[in-house]
Amino acid sequence: MLSHEGIWSAIDALAERHRLTPSGLARRAGLDPTAFNKSKRRSPDGRERWPSTESVAKILEATGASIEQFVEALRAERAAPSPTPPAALPAIPLIGFAQAGAGGFFDDSGFPAGQGWDMVDFPTTAGIKQGVYALEVQGDSMLPLYRDGDVLIVEPGAPVRRGDRVVVKTTEGEVMAKILMRQSARSIELHSLNPDHANRSFELAQVEWIARILWASQ
């Protein structure tokens, strides 16, 4: 018998097999990036939401998986013994780079604010600090270091220094991940992660906030 939990676990397993987050899998399949987020799997009143057959077909096509492989993942889910529930990992806010530039998601210091954030388990045993959040890479502008679907853990308010990997948001709403090469009292110089993209420099008056990248899922 198919179950709500089993179907979603099979989708999660397919995403993990291709080193994608659920939202990265949805985007690769041409779906809304939030379609498979855990927060979308139940309605606000607690009713179960099921993925459509069209959505399942699209993710199979996008990953090259067969329906037999998907069904096998469902069988594995049903056959697996119920494990002892692990200690819950702390959850932190998650948003994509494209949404981050839209405004309304951060306060003036670069800390998470407002509505529209998803939540994701913090994927490391390192201690979690107040205000830490996750940004999901979208596109190829950060290759070869970060790929589409990678998740960056960002710490706003932390001191930054030359050579740090940072996320910068400008007053024009542009959000980018770069390497901090120089910072003076008036300006910053940023080195691009992708050699096909130009290095950038900004007057500090053009920078809304700058935050250090703590960790990346790769």
From TrEMBL:
Gene3D superfamilies, alphabetized: Umud Fragment, subunit A
Key word Cytoplasm present: no
Single annotated GO MF: DNA binding
Keyword Transcription regulation: yes
InterPro entries linked to this entry: LexA-like, LexA/Signal_pep-like_sf, Peptidase_S24_S26A/B/C
Domain Peptidase S24/S26A/S26B/S26C, first and last residues per copy: 93-213
Keywords: DNA-binding, Transcription, Transcription regulation
Pfam families: Peptidase_S24
Protein name as it appears in the record: DNA-binding protein
